[in-house]
Design a protein that fits this description.
The protein has 264 residues and is an alpha/beta fold. The chain is built from eight helices and seven strands, in the order H-E-H-E-H-E-H-E-H-E-H-E-H-H-E. The protein has a seven-stranded parallel β-sheet with strand order 3-2-1-4-5-6-7, sandwiched between helices. Helix 2 crosses helix 8.
């Protein structure tokens, strides 16, 4: 096959969760797959925000998805199969940013976070894989360098966040993203016999306009080898690679897109 044709997603149907916020990772994922030729469904709790994003991409479809609602998760997959007849690509991007206030939170707060960011991920991945069993497919989990490393105090000095707080910071996000990495390997080992590939992308934070930059952003930039954090197009190539035939022999892998942050 021609090399450039291997990167095409024409004829494929994709679901990107958590897309709709133009400043978020999901927007890049959805846009990349759309530009590569896929039929793209985007899903989140905020239908108005989804509609505002999708209007710029004729044919992009929107679905309601609350990761804390098990019925929503079943309905999203069922609706895609009803409308498109297949599902070939799942990008698990949505995340519930709860239980971040500190380590001293009640167990119920951590349970809520794990319910949305772990249990829901398991269910959505299983249902998507059931839909992919006959054709194969690609599942991409959106992780973070925080799932690979401990907490870097230098990023937070003088910000009032995390290590500057009197209370100990919350372990929830690091715990969940670290677990996502090994869930990726586990799912790859279980689903490979069906031709379903499961990979993870570990990212760094997104750039914001210069007038919105905080000390936190500046300190993150200094820690990367490229002296910046993730731009508005930096994720797109990796997503298309993992979603398309260009990565047909890649599974159980963690693709790090962090400007070299984790290299030092």
């Amino acid at each position: 096959m021609n090399t450039m044709e291997m990167f095409s997603c024409h004829g494929k149907v994709a679901l990107v969760t958590g897309a709709g916020d133009r400043k978020g990772y999901g927007a890049q994922c959805a846009e990349a797959l759309y530009e590569a030729g896929a039929t793209v469904f985007i899903a989140s709790r905020n239908l108005a925000k989804l509609a505002g994003f999708a209007k710029d991409y004729p044919g992009m479809k929107i679905l309601k998805l609350d990761l804390e609602n098990e019925e929503d998760i079943h309905n999203v997959i069922a609706q895609i199969i009803r409308e498109a007849g297949q599902l070939d690509i799942l990008v698990n991007n949505a995340v519930a940013r709860t239980a971040l206030a500190g380590w001293e939170l009640p167990m119920a707060e951590f349970d809520r976070s794990l319910h949305a960011n772990a249990s829901a991920l398991f269910l959505l991945t299983r249902l998507a894989a059931e839909a992919m069993k006959e054709r194969g497919g690609s599942i991409i989990n959106i992780g973070s360098y925080m799932g690979m490393l401990g907490l870097d105090h230098a990023n937070y000095e003088g910000t009032g966040m995390q290590t500057d707080r009197i209370e100990w910071p919350s372990p929830a996000y690091h715990y969940e993203k670290g677990g996502m990495l090994n869930f990726t390997r586990w799912a790859a080992s279980v689903l490979g016999k069906y031709g379903i590939r499961v990979n993870c992308v570990s990212l760094i934070g997104l750039e914001v306009p210069e007038n919105e930059c905080t000390r936190f952003h500046y300190q993150h930039r200094k820690r990367t080898l490229l002296n910046r954090i993730c731009g508005s197009d930096d994720l797109k190539g990796g997503i298309v690679y993992l979603a398309s035939g260009a990565s047909n022999f890649v599974t159980g892998h963690n693709l790090v897109i962090d400007g070299g942050y984790s290299a030092i």
